[in-house]
Every structure is written in structure tokens, then in C-alpha cells.
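Moderator note: this is an archived Q&A kept for reference. The question asked for a predicted structure of one protein chain; the sequence and the answer are reproduced below.
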Amino acid sequence: MSLPSPLVRAALLVALVAAPAIARAQGQEFTRQGLYVATFEPDAGANLKLGRQAADEVRERIEKLIQGKDAQVISKADALRRIPDLTFPLDSVYPVPVIETLVRQARGDEFVVGRVARRGGTFQLTGELRLMRDRGTRQPILASAPKLEAAADQFARAVAAARAQLVPQRRCANALMNSQAEQAVQAARAGIQAYSRGAFARACLVSAMRIAGAAASDLLAESRELLAIDSTSRQGLEGAARALDALKRRDEAAAMWTRLIATDSSSATLVAFGIRGLMEGGNAKRAEPLALAAAAEHKDVMELQRLRWQVTFENRSWARAVEAGEALLATDSIAASDSTLYLRLVTAHRANGNVLRALELATRGVTRFARDSRLYALYAEIVRAESDSVLPRGLALFPKSAELNTLAARDARAKGRLADAAEATRRAVEADSALPQGLLSLAQAEFDLGRPDSALVALGRALARGEDSSLVAQFALAKGNALLRAAGQTKARGDYARALRFFDVADGVRATPQSRFLRGTAALQVASAALREAPQEKDRALGCALAREGAATVATARAGLEAGQELAPDAAKQYLEYVAQLEPFAQRQLATLCDGQAAPATTSATPSR
């Protein structure tokens, strides 16, 4: 069983206003309905005076016919009493939307609109009964007679007869809201039995059959029965369109969706509904001009702007798709947060011949959506195919484009031109200070060039600009580890000190057992080297400085190893035993080389010489 469409749900929600307790107390199934008769519009051979007379005659006769039943006529006096601030006369002719507003304010549920004509010796009344709870369908009413009174009597009796379908129709609507499609079908058929030309009962029947999953041929037959009574019934048009889509009769289905939209082309909601129906049924070509016109008319309705993008992309109307997609990227934060928009917009630009813009968007996209493999694959494809020709031309035209400079940096790095990669990354960061991970990329470039101190400066700038601290910590930890391994080959104090500075950043930004342990390990190596070099230094002041450095980093080593010993308990125990040996040695060196001065209260290494 399928769910009700938005049109059906809207009609049902209006239909199911809760019945007051007084109605239940009186044994009524539904609340008594208020029926309003509007002034008839004068047609051929008639004037406004005759339109008022026709409405008065019809109103008076309907009141007599339904008196004491399930409805009451709203008189002019009733309407004026219920709408005390009414600013226009009731006995004039107004369009249906205005009448609907008036009926709503007068607490009405049903209304009659019509036209009166006088042709030869015959009065002709043409009108319809409408429901506030179901604005998608109307019940046509016709009458003609030599005298106005006789025509009004026919018309009123036709209205009263048509109302026989309304109680079953409301049962049908209630059943649908309770997800009881089969009971809804039975109630709707009872309404048709009560009044064979019942448009409202048939509209509910069509909705119920569609929700119940009736055969497409049966749904189409019932929809056509409804449209034979009311050619503009929205339920009938939707039912026929969906049935024809199911039967793969696309051209006929498209005609039905188009007729549905035409019932109120000023309604953005209805137009969007119809366009989606066309697209779902494989009629995107037919939907495109409608989507373009609707998007132009309703510039502030984002759903229509998205439909314009979707239909033009599906139809491969690349120039229009590019325009629509760029507009969404600039104005629709929801769409812009979806990597699919980038993926398709890059495709559209490339197909439209603007490879440079495609390249720029792809670069931005892979930076923003790093985990989207589809976008990255498209980006890689463009880079392979276009970078040698398009990228240089793009940088010549837009030297300050952050996206293009980022792409140039990646291209240079891939080709081993590390200096060029660093320079391009620096230009990208200068062009866009908020470039995601821009300063991290610059730090990587500096590190690749063997300039770790410059990389540390870039990390500091990244933190100051609000870069993700976890990313900065991960970067610093990884690079510190690489430097520590390299220092294990050189055994140079300066190399160990560089590794320690990276561990200082990682531990200061986001401390973990790993960062603490590695910081302690590097500090231990710095301390050992400094205390080993201090007594060998001929310059007593420099020897004292080395002793101080050794003593300070011994303290740093103990703090780090103790805090991170859970990571590697055995190694930490061994290192801490060595720390215990170095601590008194450091104090003796201080006493000897620094005239007995105590070690400074610090927990980080001093700069190596």
C-alpha cells in the first residue's frame, strides 16, 4: 500500500477538522456544515441585478430543501455577523479565491458559485458546488427553465441531490487518514451509489484506489469517469497521470500532468508537484520549459530552483544546467552542502566546454568533501586530462585563485617539483586565508623541502586561524615521529630537539598517551646529548647553557614518560630508570659548570645551538 500523495494528504487534512463534542452529544456523525451561496456572475443577456436575484432564489430554495438535515445555509446576515470587519459588499461578483476567503471567515464548509444567462425565453444557470475541505474537485450543477424561479428550483434540487454523496465521502476521507484504503473504497462507492454523478465521492475513490495499489487500468478507468464529470479535478488528473505512467503511456501521462499544472499555474506547490510527476514518469523533456518558467516566476521558491537544476541536468541542457547549478551553489546552503551538486556541476561545466571552471569546482569539492570517492575520481580524471593545458592558462587568467593555486600545488608535488608546490600553496593561502587545511598544506610543503622550522611556523598560524586542532595535532605528531626516527640515525642533539618541538605542539594542542610518551622519549634524547656535550664545551658559559638544557629536558622526559607509560609500559620503565640516573648527573653538572645554580623550572627543551 502506497502513501497518499501531497495533494491527497492536503485535501484529507482539511477534511478532518475534529468534530465538536456537541455533535457527538446530539448523535450526529459529523458536524453540521455551513453552505454559502455567492452572487451569480451575469453572462449573456444578464446583468448584476439578475445575478443577485438568481443567487437569492437558489439560496432560499436550498435552505428549504436541507433545513433540519446535515447542513444550514449561511445567509447574508449570518456572514455579516460572523465577519464584522468586512470591507466589501457581499452582493457583488468575486473570483473564487476571494469567495473562499469569505467562506472561511464566515466559518463555512461548502459554497455554490454560478453564472446566469438569458437566451431567448430561457434562463440558464451554470454553476458548481465546492468544498472547503477538497478544493481539488468541484461538482458541476446545471439548470434551465423559461422562468428564473423554475430554473432556481432545478438548480437548488440538483445541489441537494449532489449533497447525498458527502457523508460517504467524509467516511472515505476518514478511512484514508486512518490508512484503511479498502474501507475508503467501500465508503466512496456508497457515495457514488447515493449520487451517481458524485464528483467528490469519485475523487476520494480514485485516491483510495491509488493508495490501495489498484491495477493501473482500473485506476485509469475511474479517473476518466471523474474527469468526465469535472475535467479539472486534480485527483482525477493525478490518478490518470499515474495510471498512464504505470502503463508506460508517457505521452498521454505527460498531457495529464500538464493539465494538472494548468489548473492553478500560479501555485508554486502545485507546479512543483506536476513537474516532479513528469520527471518521475520519464517526461523530463516536457517538464523543462515548465520548470524554467516556474523558476523565473517564483525566484524565491527554492524547490522550483532545485527542480530547474535537476531537469536541465537530466536533459543535458548544459548551458541552462550550468546557470541553474551555479545559482544553487550561491543561494542554497542545503544543496551546496551536498557533494552531488559539485559532482554534477563539474560534469555540466565540462560538458558545456568550460573546463577551467570544472577544474576549479572539482578542486574545491575534493577539499570540502574529502571522503567522496566519486568526486575525487572525477577530479583525478580532469587533472590527468587537462592540467598541462588548462591549469597554466587558468593561473594566467586568475593568478589569485585559491582553488587553482591549490590544484597547481598538488600537480607540482605529484611531479616532484617541491619548491613550486610550496610556492603555489603559499599563494593559495594568501588568496584565501580561510582555505580549508590551507596552512596545513603549506606546513607539509615546507616539511617536504626540509624546512621543519618553517613548517612549525605554519602550524602556529593554522591554530591561530582556527584550523581543526585534531588535524594540527595529528600532523605535528606524525612529523615529530618522522624526525625522531631520522635523529636516531644522526644521533645529533639538534635533530632530536626539532622532533621534540613538534611533539610539544602535538601534546599542547591535544594531549594523548602517544604524544606524551613520544615527547618524553625525544626529551630524554635531547637531555642525554646535552649533558654529554656540556663538560666537553671549552666556553664555560656555553657549557652551563647545555647543562641547563639537559636538566630541563630531563624533567620534561620524566613528565612525558610517566604520563604516557600506558602506551609502552616496558619501554617507559627502562627510559625512566635512565632518567633516574641522569637527574643527579644533571645536578652535578649544574653545580660544576654553573657555579652551583639550580636547574630552571621549565618543562620544555631550550633551543639547540
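Archived answer notes: The beta strands are 33-37, 41-42, 71-74, 110-119, 122-131, 134-145.
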